Amino acid sequence: MATQANSIPHPTLIKVDPFIPADQQKGIHNRWHPDIPAIATVKPGETFKIECVDWTGAQIGNNDNSDDVMNVDLTKVHNLSGPIAVEGAEPGDCLVVDILDITPFEKMPWGYTGIFELENGGGLFAREFNSRAAKAIWDLNGIYATSRHIPGVRFAGVTHPGLIGTAPSTELLATWNKREGELIAAHADSIPPVAFPPEPKGAYVGQDLAPEVLEKIAKEGARTIPGREHGGNCDIKNLSKGSRCYFPVFIKGANLSVGDLHFSQGDGEMSFCGAIEMAGIITFSTSIIKGGIEKFALKQPIFLPSPIDPMYSSKIIFEGLSVDIHGDGKQYNMDASVAYKQAALNAIAYLQKIGYTREQAYLLLSAAPVESHVGALVDSPNACVTLAIPTGIFDHNILPNPDGFPKRNFGQCAIRSDGVV
Amino acid sequence: MATQANSIPHPTLIKVDPFIPADQQKGIHNRWHPDIPAIATVKPGETFKIECVDWTGAQIGNNDNSDDVMNVDLTKVHNLSGPIAVEGAEPGDCLVVDILDITPFEKMPWGYTGIFELENGGGLFAREFNSRAAKAIWDLNGIYATSRHIPGVRFAGVTHPGLIGTAPSTELLATWNKREGELIAAHADSIPPVAFPPEPKGAYVGQDLAPEVLEKIAKEGARTIPGREHGGNCDIKNLSKGSRCYFPVFIKGANLSVGDLHFSQGDGEMSFCGAIEMAGIITFSTSIIKGGIEKFALKQPIFLPSPIDPMYSSKIIFEGLSVDIHGDGKQYNMDASVAYKQAALNAIAYLQKIGYTREQAYLLLSAAPVESHVGALVDSPNACVTLAIPTGIFDHNILPNPDGFPKRNFGQCAIRSDGVV
Amino acid sequence: MATQANSIPHPTLIKVDPFIPADQQKGIHNRWHPDIPAIATVKPGETFKIECVDWTGAQIGNNDNSDDVMNVDLTKVHNLSGPIAVEGAEPGDCLVVDILDITPFEKMPWGYTGIFELENGGGLFAREFNSRAAKAIWDLNGIYATSRHIPGVRFAGVTHPGLIGTAPSTELLATWNKREGELIAAHADSIPPVAFPPEPKGAYVGQDLAPEVLEKIAKEGARTIPGREHGGNCDIKNLSKGSRCYFPVFIKGANLSVGDLHFSQGDGEMSFCGAIEMAGIITFSTSIIKGGIEKFALKQPIFLPSPIDPMYSSKIIFEGLSVDIHGDGKQYNMDASVAYKQAALNAIAYLQKIGYTREQAYLLLSAAPVESHVGALVDSPNACVTLAIPTGIFDHNILPNPDGFPKRNFGQCAIRSDGVV
Amino acid sequence: MATQANSIPHPTLIKVDPFIPADQQKGIHNRWHPDIPAIATVKPGETFKIECVDWTGAQIGNNDNSDDVMNVDLTKVHNLSGPIAVEGAEPGDCLVVDILDITPFEKMPWGYTGIFELENGGGLFAREFNSRAAKAIWDLNGIYATSRHIPGVRFAGVTHPGLIGTAPSTELLATWNKREGELIAAHADSIPPVAFPPEPKGAYVGQDLAPEVLEKIAKEGARTIPGREHGGNCDIKNLSKGSRCYFPVFIKGANLSVGDLHFSQGDGEMSFCGAIEMAGIITFSTSIIKGGIEKFALKQPIFLPSPIDPMYSSKIIFEGLSVDIHGDGKQYNMDASVAYKQAALNAIAYLQKIGYTREQAYLLLSAAPVESHVGALVDSPNACVTLAIPTGIFDHNILPNPDGFPKRNFGQCAIRSDGVV
């Protein structure tokens, strides 16, 4: 018969509490550095679990104003769980990681999506919208998310780690800091900043390390904001549970870290804190392919997507070109970022016709399973990018209505307690 | 019983011959201008067909060298069929176009994909690869394409018009010429050029018009290379047969033109002439939504995709960031175009490990139903874009092989008769 | 350049006229018999086309009453095109057939779905409904079908041959006639009949054969109504264009015949003439696997489905059990046929609540891309079968409305000129 | 910030221990009867969880022989959790149930599939195979299942409750007992039995009820084996997490019960205990549609499937007809059950060619996401049913190999300790 004895649960290698500030917990770190020791070691083939706080480390609450978003301390992000070493992994190898599952904590069945202040975090339209803090809280009901701040919508999550990667080598870290430093130097006064140099303030490694090691990590450690050659904060929604990912290995043990779990996200993650951010538990197994970097020409991770992806076959698709039609009309040269933004602005304008506020539309497109494809990148001077909204996530009909849309009022998302939007 | 009398075929409003140079045929034009008169008029609700030559107007042949691509005359493109006026359409309206079907000519069951010379047409990697002309001829066997120039591959087409749009108003045309002119002026010596000003040489309108009208069109008419507010050369593979598209109307009658039919294309259309270019027949029906531009905030076309899209659920996905890892390592600032290119270069390098030449890989990724998603555009400074190759289009296994790939030789695509690649 | 000379169309091996009675045309036959000679021979690897009349051979017209259905002569069906011999095929081999394309004739862009009279053809509910002739004419607009007889519906076709198979050997034919004869004998008075013995009346082979050969075929030839070990009239909607099918070979040359082309069909084909029946053109290529019957344990065809299948992800699903809940409440013993019928009757009752007539609902479920799955066949005594209606084929919302459905009137399908339903 | 206080977990209304025999636990019952009182009551709109033991109540262990399956006590099944009353539900209403999530217990990450003895439980091929007990244990690794007893296979689960339904009214219960009793009477000596009458032995209700009430329930209560008008043991794999189901309400409160959780199942559930049977936790929310039975002609449940369903687009499909080709060649009359069995036998024979044993193939087809469609039910005398195996669940290529399959040995599943198969 079924017994405790013949039922072996998968071990949890890192345990965290999603309600305690991250910098009071073991097994968490928020910078990339080769000198951060592995907190645990696994053998290839083992299935294991890792618990993660939300990316901010419990700074954001389940409530109805956005003051916590306004005041978020971004020197303390992203809070990652790890590193996990894999026995036998060596530089030049490929670390195969199966993302077997991702779930929220049972005790914390909610997540959030935020618009950050122009001066504190920004986001894709921070300047265009002169962004003030706003947020939506999402209730996680099994496979679905709904929000009291964006009524009329329910969708299945494409749950994924926003951030996952192997540790950089000393050389790779130096390359990052050099190239990003040059970019920062060239745009010194940009708001929001174009990139983030190493920042000792807020740096954290939840291990008992010698002070000089901690200091070195804090001083040199790469910030976690961008994705890089090792993976990192790529925010690829389809690197979801069920995926198999092939990472390059740069140091002995590979030293895998993970965090920034997302219940759902739209392609582009528009508002920066654009996914449904959550704390939760991720299940992995790993294997190693010796010499995989050479075998697969592996300059960056490659992955096989999950067989599980929400099917919303009916969509409405918006086009965008590299002309700032929503702004000053400027012609850009084959710029897919501009094209994505135009498609997004077309979509936001459409959702406003339906009755959502601009902030609700911005949050919804960030968090829902929106698909954005590169259409064409060769028709000079106009890059073309599309953005597709699945119609099945709405409980009302959003297809173009020949009579125009009836006036509807969906309220507003959570905004600052001083009412500024 | 079934009889000729009770069987009414859909009328063909424009007939062309795919084997005759386009500029000897009626109903074709290759510039955008409001003064090009409609060649036919339809009522809303009618189903009708339009025949199209391939975009070059028969310049490329079904043979085994790329000299025709090398010498292609690009002043004569794109050859569009139209314009078709729709009764009742007025500026401010939305023209709804159902793309009901697209088929190649029965007498011409083939298409081509080309890499253009750096100095004559270019393409996404024209400079990186110092591109020399190359091509692949595709045999169109019902829903499938195969190529003797890229063995080991067969895929179902996502057939679509690369180019479809309504006619611009005089004002809109002026806007285009102004903004693109400014871009050209700012990059005067660029090879390939960043954009294309009006060019009387090669301009063509296949109608009996007064010489001064023809001259005006040739002198002012916008080139067809980029997509713009009216649609145009967007090269969106999912605007495929079965789609419903909503176009803004800028002049009375809307004046719809179409051409550049593609049997298949990958997201991005990489090599510029990257789709499987074909001549063929497109079937439409239309309707009008009065005041649709205002109702739907319609600054550019929006569309509903077809329920028919090839299902290749197994994929291998490559990531790309806005760092030129394949080149000089430069850090770009949140540039999705750079990120797409890196993902593409990762994919090309991978296909070369399998045994394809760089040219074959470049052509294949351009033409096959490759999916490219914007991953995230908010993780400064790195935009992240992914590119997914469906594994089911290969008759061999392309998944990462722990033992590395066996050496295979797939020959080479069609190259220049002088052998230069 | 593109020329006629470098463009070789796929050859058409059998040409027919869809407006001429089938028994006046060459290359058509309507019985299965090993002595029907091949009308053409192909080499493995060739792509070729075959034209087909509709299954009745032009008996049904594009009009608004069902008298032609009422009076249809079923001794003359199904009209098949063929046989085509494949060089090198021998008994014991496997004939691989790629169904590359299927299109209606350009001159006949319509099809029909029929309910047959109880006493002339029947159908799944012939007895329950005491069926009288009715039909719907479908306009084929590219990938879509619509019907003036069933308003409010539009769907993409899953185009397939209802009937395709290799020729039986003499022994296999004898087996068929014996086993079906025994069934007929056991249900001698059934209306509609349970099976159909060889029937010289109406038998036809469109070749110049010796009278004694024709007579033998007419006397012994198996009727085409059921599917059998060689394929035949399986009416599997997913054996659609793009599929690859593996047939057992029973005689030298394999002798492939095809007909009964369907623009679309629901799982089950409910009303017997339940698909959208059409005349048209099918494109094939073939290959041979020597000894394939043994290699693959091939007692019946197996196939690989097309990558192209309409995606209607939103569905409403009806359950059915092997209890005649809609009839006398009788408990059947694990009977999946009864379960399918109950699911179908639940669906019909639901569509009637929406406003369709029973005849419209019956025709629609027969013709639309309805999915029917075997749920479970092991929970004694109740087989469970489901039937799923895609909601995206309606231009109105058919999901369960908490307020009930508003009264709507969709008219009626084509019925008999005497008004009897 | 995120706190315990602002994070409200969904309440668990019934808690069970999967390692304790079911008949020692509260909140479980194994018969259907209107007099079983609700163990808990919910308001419409609440999200809540229910824990379930596996259907046998811990009788089967994670080990490597099938003696527990051989000796299973089937008078004690199925063990259901419930009933749950919904406030306001009355006979004639429709109870809407959202199945929001289903997960295994963290402490029990495994499930099983069993072949039962011909004389104790049976299964679809119990007689054909003279079945002896066998089983496969599946490791549940996040979204995937693998089995040491069926190597070479990994697939994503379509997790669903095999059994879910509302309580019958007294009248409905009487109808069931009458009609099934008549069937039993007509097949008195059948092995396995055709149906199961009320059976006091093994009957269990985990509530403190008066002895006479318990006795009445045990004496009259319907067995849980078949699905019926209220839902019940329908074993529909697509009624999976994410589905919305509409149940008819027969008694006040509706009294919903659920159990028999399946991690995965193939259409048909072939071997009876054919799913991956597991213990676990199901999450629900409910609502009520007043008068829904009348509004939707609701004789049985209808449901909307989940947007989440594993996508395995590449398949190999087997056909089956209502002729017993694998047995005595008998011709059946339009019998879809026979047709399903033939398709299944074709698939089993094919998998044996690849190297699996008959028992492994039988278990695999029962448990994997196999799709079985009703092809056609109108081509007298042959029903046609298809069975599709997704190729992507194998780590080796199972497509028809022109050279035949290489000899491979996948061992054997768990069999009886006496070695009898």
From TrEMBL, chains A, B, C, D:
<dbReference type="GO" id="GO:0016811">
    <property type="term" value="F:hydrolase activity, acting on carbon-nitrogen (but not peptide) bonds, in linear amides"/>
</dbReference>
<dbReference type="InterPro" id="IPR054833">
    <property type="entry name" value="FormamaseFmdA"/>
</dbReference>
<protein>
    <submittedName>
        <fullName>Acetamidase/Formamidase</fullName>
    </submittedName>
</protein>
<dbReference type="Pfam" id="PF03069">
    <property type="entry name" value="FmdA_AmdA"/>
</dbReference>
<dbReference type="InterPro" id="IPR004304">
    <property type="entry name" value="FmdA_AmdA"/>
</dbReference>
